[in-house]
Amino acid sequence: MNEPVSITIADLIGKPRAIAAADGEMVFKEIYPVLKAGTPVVLSFAGIRMVITAFLNAAIGKLYRDIPEDEIEHLLEVTDLAEAFQPALAHSKTWSKAFYADPERLDRSIKEVMEDEE
Length: 118
Description:
The chain is of the alpha/beta class. The chain has 6 helices and 5 strands; from the N terminus they run βαβαββααβαα. It has one domain. α3 crosses α5 and α5 packs across α6.
């Protein structure tokens, strides 16, 4: 197996808050080709003081679109993520897996809920 590639998010995005989807997209563009090549990635949240789901969806959740779940779980190691943000990561993974497994079904479900609220 290849040596893991280590990426520190704070260094990559240049700020201590991982809150923008655009910053998440930057992380995604960095890790996606490495994971697709079968190389492990250690993604460090050291120095990050705030994380929101929009960032996580863009950075990590989007991986589930093209890479099988078992490969992501095997190749991607998330480190230094504060305990307070662990539920946001779990939530992002759960919804991303559901969405990319059947995006049309999820879209229909959302539309149905929205229609019911009108």
